[in-house]
Amino acid sequence: MAYTPTDYLPYDFANRRHIGPSPAEMDQMFKVLGVSGLDELIDQTVPKSIRQAEPLKMGKAMSESELLYFMRKTAQKNKVMTSLIGMGYHGTVTPPAIQRNILENPAWYTAYTPYQPEISQGRLEALLNFQTMISDLTGLEIANASLLDESTACAEAMTMAQRVAKSKAKAFFVDENCHPQNIAVMKTRAAPLGIEVIVGSPDDLQADAVFGAIFQYPGTHGHVRDFTEVIAALHAAKAIAIVSADPMALCLLKEPGAMGADIAVGSTQRFGVPVGNGGPHAAYMATKDDYKRAMPGRIVGISIDSHGNRAYRLSLQTREQHIRREKATSNVCTAQALLAVMASFYAVFHGPKGLRAIAQRIHRKTARLAKGLEAAGFKVEPKDFFDTITVDVGLLQRGVLQAAVQQGINLRRVGKTKVGITLDERTRPETIESVWRAFGLLRKDDDFTPEYRLPEALIRTSDYLQHDVFHMNRAETEMMRYMRRLADRDLALDRAMIPLGSCTMKLNSAAEMMPISWPEFANLHPYAPADQANGYAELIADLSAKLCQITGYDDFSMQPNSGAQGEYAGLLTIADYHKARGEGHRNVCLIPVNAHGTNPASAQMVGWKVVAVKCDDNGSIDVEDFRAKAEKHSADLAGCMITYPSTHGVFEETVIEVCKITHEHGGQVYIDGANMNAMVGLSRPGDLGGDVSHLNLHKTFAIPHGGGGPGMGPIGVKAHLVPHLPEKSGAVSAAPFGSASILPISWAYILMMGGEGLTQATRVAILNANYIAKRLEGAYDVLYKGQNGRVAHECIIDTRPYADSAGVTVDDIAKRLIDCGFHAPTMSWPVAGTLMIEPTESETKAELDRFCDAMLAIREEIRAIEEGRMDAENNPLKNAPHTMEDLVKDWDRPYSREQGCFPPGAFRVDKYWPPVNRVDNAYGDRHLVCTCPPMSDYAEAAE
Ligand SMILES: *Cc1c(COP(=O)(O)O)cnc(C)c1O
Q1: What's residue 326's pLDDT?
Q2: In the chain, what percentage of residues exceed pLDDT 70?
Q3: What is the dihedral of CA 200, 202, 207, 212, to 10 degrees?
Q4: Minimum-distance ligand 1 atom for the alpha carbon of 566
Q5: How many CB atoms lie within 10 A of CB 367?
């Protein structure tokens, strides 16, 4: 066979790292598909009418060494200072063992969200440790497994309070001592929902005028106060009390639960997660048992497996799939799992005594710093504090701030005359002396004996972190092995393909990952003076420009730190645009029925009415239904949200028509960019008629999934929407550039791929998906093909017929794939009873074949049941997954151990053994336990 030069790029081309099939393997795949090469396949797959006119022009692709050299130079344009700015971002020491064994370990960072609990027991245990830690520190019964950042956690708590409060008041009270970014994000969230935000002093709070209130603890300027009385007043008025608390302070101070708070939120950044110019870090939320079902985000719980052994799982999991339509309470999907895991290990690493000691040291240093300033006559506020003080320096403000910068220290500018100082775990005696020098004082740190400045009444009296996991032997040997044991329980990309439709689990290459650990990216404070972040500015400008070229948009906002946040930010942008044109009444959003659950949830959050649009038998938008609904709601049409290619993995040619109809009726078009891996270099949402799209950088652009986060969901917009982006119309995230410190990953990916490489990745992603569809043809029905019988970058196979013919469900197949050494594809979405397979360009033909062999063998097992050769109940599918325990126990099954444990696909030597049998979901929801159980329980369960 003869190939055109574009079929595959030369072997030494940098993108071979990302492109799985070798040239020889691609030859074989073309034969199977009956095409002469990639050009022909792409012509059959991607309609001409939607193809982009110009190829991507990104300059020459960089090699790894060029990239790392270039990244270093960019990183060095950032100035790493000691930031004592506070505002929820603190210096912290990441224990090197955690940095190496978790943050920099693909077994942890390449894992997917733990929807398949049997292959996720390791990270589920670490997340349960996180929840236990939060629940203990806050004194509240139940915690979730992370939210995106402290500000959005505050906003989530506000809307949750509105849902659960018995008070019918319409206003929400915000303590003026909240961090400014928290106030800003709550205001943004409140506006479209008609919530009036009252910012003021807790002393002036009128409890009966509000459905809830939030207080910052310690306050942004350092105040620590007991909220017990205000909270009692709120409860008397049937309103909800929320405390946004620093978990480090809670190691010394009375916990929110003891004050009567209903909800606590905050950031766990200072538990060993670098500041990273704003993120990613794990925010937390904890609440009383009564409100657990109203809590947003994922919650890890404990259940049992089919043998009655303890097993972890995401509880209330079906609820997350119901973040949709009018029932939506939140759109949180991707959160901050990896960072929550890091924070939990920080607590495991230090234990309660260690944490208390760290908190005490921070406090003593702050007390010493204050004493030195007071001794020199400076006015230090407040009287009682934990780690933050404010000094009134009058006209000296500028001078002090500048002198501090000359000492390598950033202090906080507060009002016109004050300076804020927040100390942390990294503060050294020399740091304190440098701060004094900035105030013109020449003193030695040991001039002052330590003392406590915590108010007596607020000293914490309750214990925390009593569970055994926080009391294990802390020798690093033991720690390292604990992290390794948990990692080994999980199946991540470092072991096998994770063929998750719509989630694009591609390679996260080592060279892309390395720069995120560099101090120049990791240790910048998001509110440090802009001239210290020139490297970041260059990175963000260039990444935005490249994403504009890829998508056909005119500008990008980097604020949203997940895909769903991007949707929300994009819809707010559209709403602001309508408002500016005097059409603020437009509030109807057309969304096809097969949309991702976050779409209607996000529309709900901006106060819009969701009108569902039908899909035809091919999974494409029913254009006539769309037109009819657009006409019907013409006067109020805000816009539509569509996914391209469709969630069914088909390039619909009607997309241009759908965009046109929306525009004719005065609406704006939101194109969900989660499927961008099928488009980069071939087609641009901006050219199709989209006005705004989010990109999941943690899907298409190589940021790892981290076991359920971090992510980045920047939005691209057309020029007319630029003045309405969150930067201008209201913050959606805590930090100006969201989770800025993972942006180097996507940038590195683009720089090392180049325009040609990116396009090749798309083409090979389509090749890989079509190869799987072809190999499974005949055994399974592939739903939804394009006009030439091709699929896009993913394919949906139908397993519904086997429920009737053999009593085999999609769940049985997913669990059986674990025995074969695979993570299941996306299950039952967008169509119930199906599997959506997305191999990505990163997988080799050998891996695709291993997967197809496994799927074909499973089909034969189904056939054996259909034909009565295998028992309908006691068979390898129903008993899947098989554990090592099964292998050594008495074997009473009508199939061999060999067939049970080593089906096609399973490696003989490197066999992945799930640590538990099939997890009982219903049991876990009936017996909701979401903190670490006492060790005695483990013994019981094992009996
Ligand atoms: C993944 C995905 C989202 C949500 O992205 P998150 O980062 O998880 O919030 C939205 N839409 C589609 C189609 C997706 O696949």
Answers
A1: 55
A2: 96
A3: 80
A4: 9
A5: 22
Q: If residue 900 lies in a helix (H) or strand (E), which one and from where to where?
A: helix 897-901
Shortest-distance Cα residue to atom 2 of ligand 1 = 674
The domain that contains 636 carries what CATH number?
3.40.640.10
Output the CA–CA distances (angstroms, integers) from residue 656 to 241, 613, 653, 689, 776, in the order listed: 49, 16, 7, 6, 32
Same domain, 726 and 578: yes
Task: Give the Å distance between the CA of 751 and the centre of ligand 1.
Answer: 24
Residue 613 falls inside a structural domain: yes
Report the pLDDT value the prediction gives residue 936, as an integer from 0 to 100. Answer: 58
Q: Whose CA is nearest to atom 4 of ligand 1?
A: 563
Q: CB 720: neighbour CB atoms within 10 A?
A: 12
Name the domain boundary from 702, 725, 753. Answer: 753
Residues in CB range of 510: below 8 A, 6 or more apart: none
Between the CA of 674 and the centroid of ligand 1 the distance, in Å, is: 6
Q: Is residue 445 part of a domain?
A: no
- Cα separation of 882 and 901, whole Å? 6
Same domain for 301 and 217: yes
Report DSSP letters for 558-581, one per residue: ----SHHHHHHHHHHHHHHHHHHT
CA-565 nearest atom, ligand 1: 9
SS (H, E, C) 130-189: HHHHHHHHHCCCEECCCECCHHHHHHHHHHHHHHHCCCCCCEEEEECCCCHHHHHHHHHH
Domain boundaries, position 720: 562-753
Confirm if 564 and 333 have CB atoms less than 8 A apart: yes
Between 241 and 5, the more confident residue is 241
Q: Are 174 and 300 in the same domain?
A: yes
For ligand 1, the distance from its centroid to the CA atom of residue 501, given in whole angstroms, is 11
Residues 688 and 595 reside in one and the same domain: yes
Residue 408 lies in a domain: no
Ligand 1 pocket (Cβ < 6 Å) reads 333-334, 502-503, 562-564, 596, 598, 643, 672, 674, 696, 711, 713
Confidence (pTM): 0.97
| Shared-domain flag, residues 212 and 182 | yes
Which of 334, 677, 694, 732 to mutate to test ligand 1, by most ligand atoms within 8 A of the CB atom?
334
Q: Are the CB atoms for 857 and 905 separated by under 8 Å?
A: yes
Q: Ligand 1: which atom is nearest the Cα of residue 331?
A: 9
Q: Give the tens place of pLDDT for each residue, 896-908.
A: 999 999 999 999 9
Element (H, E) at 402: helix 397-406
Determine the average pLDDT of the residues in 329-342: 94
Comparing C-alpha atoms, which of 887, 876, 886 is closest to residue 820?
876
Pocket test for ligand 1, best of 591, 596, 646, 712 (most atoms within 8 A of CB): 596
CA distance 758 to 753: 5
